[in-house]
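Same chain as my last thread, 371 residues:
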Amino acid sequence: MKIPIIATSLVKFGDLWDKSINDLIRGAGKRVLEDAGIKPNDIDSLFIANEFSSNATGQSMLNSIAFEELGISNVVCVRVGDASGAAVIKEAANSILAGQSKIVMVLGVEKLTDLKTNEMLASSSSLISQEESFIGATVQSQFALITRKYLHKFKLKSRDLSFIPAMNHKNALDNEYAQYQFELSEEKINSSPLSADPIRMLECASYCDGCAALIMCDEETARKKFANINKRYLLASSLKNDFLSLSKRKSIVTIESSMKAAQEAYKAARIKPGVIDIMEIHDIVPISEILAIEDLGFAKKGEGIKFIKANYKKINCSGGLKGCGHAIGATGIRQAISVIDKLKESNMKYGLTHTLGGTGSVSVVNVFCSG
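reply #2:
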């Protein structure tokens, strides 16, 4: 697999009270078309990622909205929790590889500020198992269980994890599309109220509004139609699943879906994890980033924090979910754009994105390269 990426577009993440989901789709969609220098009728397929539109806006037919706003008629919506944006990149690539499409738009969108806090909590509980949410479990409380187990197993304190959100906020300072462009000290993080013991409120990424889009094509079309565009490439994409219930997993300090997705992606790309120059990692809470670093093969179990501290300049340079905000359907595409932009402005060769659904019942790993 070597799929050219010819254009990208990003709407600043945040509490976008003045914009509807139609506005977000129209804004990002038209901008990416302009960036590519093409028209809607040049697009063979559009894949949209979204998770909570039916909950937040009462509208689930985003494919029809995309047709109305962009004039593209072959539209498919994909819903895979937090991993939706990363998953549609895979689906778009498959469409190109199968010869069904020559030019494909991928768009992720979420409009979550229309939900009240209790409504967002209820909606996000759909990302974990029914039997566990029925007895009061939430995404954060499950990550709290995972954090406690990890801290006990590797003899760490909860304060040891605050470096991660502090680092990601610092990385977001230069990202004009990030929701939180300010620093957050470890001291302030550790003094914030508990969200789900031992996770503190200022360690958690916040749900927000946002939209991201990119355009991919086959190599022949890239040579003929986009020869003058500075392209980057999708080299491999893998999606793997695991049990929704924590109680059914082999271990709660290993995300099996991430480990398997990474192994498959590395094999398809014919690379080893050590060659990755830049990466965007799912950091909805600190433990999710730590486990990802270990499960993706960058560090041994128990040594994720050590690796992150030694390599912070190549991890979540955008600010991650914590600094950028988490517009669920758009996040996986936003991560891809962050990596692609870094590959364009540097001599780096390989980039990687990692996105979780829920607490790891699904993981998507995408690998990109500069040429």
